Amino acid sequence: MRTLTLRRSPAPFALATTLLVAFFLLFAWPQSAAAHDSLIDSDPAADSTVDTLPAELTLTFSAALIGGEGATEVVVLDAEGNNVAEGEPELDGAIVIQPLSPAAAAGQYHVIWKVVSSDGHPTSDDFGFTVSTSTAGDTTPSTESPAAPLESSATPTAAPTVAEDPNMTSGFSVSAPLLIGAAVILLIVAFIVFTLVRSRRRSNPHAGSDDPAER
Predict the structure, then answer these.
(1) What per-residue confidence (pLDDT) applies to 175?
(2) Is 62 helix (H, G, I), strand (E, B) or coil?
(3) pLDDT of residue 137
(4) How many CA atoms lie within 13 A of 185 on its CB side?
(5) Is the pLDDT of residue 153 over 70?
(6) CA distances (Å), origin 55, targets 67, 68, 72, 76
(7) Residues 161, 153: Cα–Cα separation, whole Å
(8) Contact 211, 1 (CB under 8 A)
(9) For residue 171, is pLDDT > 80?
(10) Helix (H) or strand (E) holding 107
(11) 3-state secondary structure of 48
């Protein structure tokens, strides 16, 4: 009597393991790498309307930011393009406080901010709000030119927009080296599976025959 022993090929297990690794490389890793700290609240809030311009603008982020010279910058432009931000922004953990001018006109305001996330990557964005009542009064405008936003320009250039910062995306992007690496892994797995199946067929040429289990 001969007993036929069935052996399970390791090929399916190796294939499944490698596919899981490739899935992690293509999706989980890029997504976590792109998850920079984000703005979760502001005062004034985005797209809101306030009676008068407050004494300060407050930005609250999802995690404590990294400080340092030039790391945190805030510009608040009125409808004429004047920067009403006064002095340097104050960083307190995940909160940025930017003092504002006490005399401000009514109208639309455009906030542009740039910070350094807790992961070390710079991130920036912008939003707007509306002031319904002017606090400028009848005082004669100062002959001094308005404070230059970030880089002495009416349109800030030092604060990159989301599109200009390759590390900032609403979702995530997969880099070419990562795609190439995943493709190489899949090719290696395919070769290993082919080799194992071919070797098993050579060592057991009757594996696919209808030999009875017992004689």
Answers:
(1) 47
(2) coil
(3) 73
(4) 19
(5) no
(6) 23, 24, 19, 12
(7) 15
(8) no
(9) no
(10) strand 107-116
(11) coil
Q: Is 167 exposed, middle or buried (0-12, 13-18, 19+ CB in 10 A)?
A: middle
Cα angle for residues 35, 37, 40 (degrees, 5° grid): 115
Given a contact cutoff of 8 angstroms between Cβ atoms, the answer to whether 79 and 34 are in contact is no
Cβ atoms within 10 Å, residue 98 = 22
Residue of 105 and 139 predicted with greater confidence: 105
**171 vs 80: CA distance, rounded Å:** 34
- Say how far apart CA 166 and CA 36 lie, in whole Å: 12
Q: Quick one: angle between helices 11-23 and 176-203, nearest 10?
A: 180
Among residues 96, 163, 124, the alpha carbon closest in space to that of 36 is found at 124
Q: What are phi and psi of 129, to 5 degrees?
A: -150, 170
Rounded CA gap, 10 and 3, in Å?
A: 22
User: Cβ distance 136 to 107 under 8 Å?
Assistant: no
Residue 37 C-alpha from the chain's centroid: 7
